[in-house]
Predict the structure of dTDP-4-dehydrorhamnose reductase.
Amino acid sequence: MKNILIVGASGFLGNELYKIFKKDSSYKTYGTYSKNENSNLLYLDVTDIESIKKVFEKIKPNIIIITAALTNVEYCEESKENVYKINVEGIKNISNISKPYNCKVIYISTEYVFDGKNGPYSEIDEVNPINYYGKTKLSGEKVIQTYIRNYMIVRTTVVYGWNLESKNFIMQLIKNLNENKIMKVPVDQISSPTYCPNLASMIKESCDNNLCGVFNIVGKDVMNRYEFAVKSAEVLNLDKNLLVPVKTENLGQIAKRPLNAGLKIDKIYKKLKCKPVNVHDGLIEIKELYDKYKSNNCEDNSYE
């Protein structure tokens, strides 16, 4: 049995990974939180070396999956010092402390390491982040490659799914359209929407097979954000007329976005039995969960 530690298990992807590994008796699964307290998880602050040491000494991990990061792109642009402490120095701290344990490290990265001029991108295309979030995640990748011998870097993007505590794109869309709010959606941000449970399953199988190196793990489709929103509204029976297509330059966002992005999945597709799903199939699963939620809250069918 291997001891696996999911750093950031209280987050959206981390929670999904925690659940899927818990089901496999060949792993002893542990997870951590830093702000969202959870009695099933261990406290770990990536900026506090003693906090990391305490967890490592307790569980002696064989495998670490690092999902913890500051991912709000706008916040990252405005709070660079704090973001660097978590997204870069935090990764160094974990990497240093993991050395005596000879751990395998799986690091969750992003398509934002690319500039979005010539996507979709393969794993060997030249990186060139254009916002601070992307720069810190690329620095995190380099830390892992420098400090860790047995590593896997997972580049993903636009991770969506049903989770009432998450602010992922789908949950924002459901909330806004249920409240009859107009939602401006960029028509020129092209990416690879990734269904969270599918992503977690692919990472799990990658771990089972001890895959090493850099891998794009995203959904099967490449589409712009407005296209994704319209398809989502159609499948979920929401009013797509509330969706307004706009160009990114008119959204007033602080951080630059890679526009013509998305990730190629040829490499991971050949390695796994669990394949990337398309947007439609991911949305169908969300619809089932959303319909069940509505039926259980029939007095007030609005999403809160």
User: Anything to note?
Assistant: The two ends are 41 Å apart (CA to CA). The chain has ten helices and 13 strands. The CA atoms of residues 32 and 42 lie 5 Å apart. The longest strand covers residues 27-33.
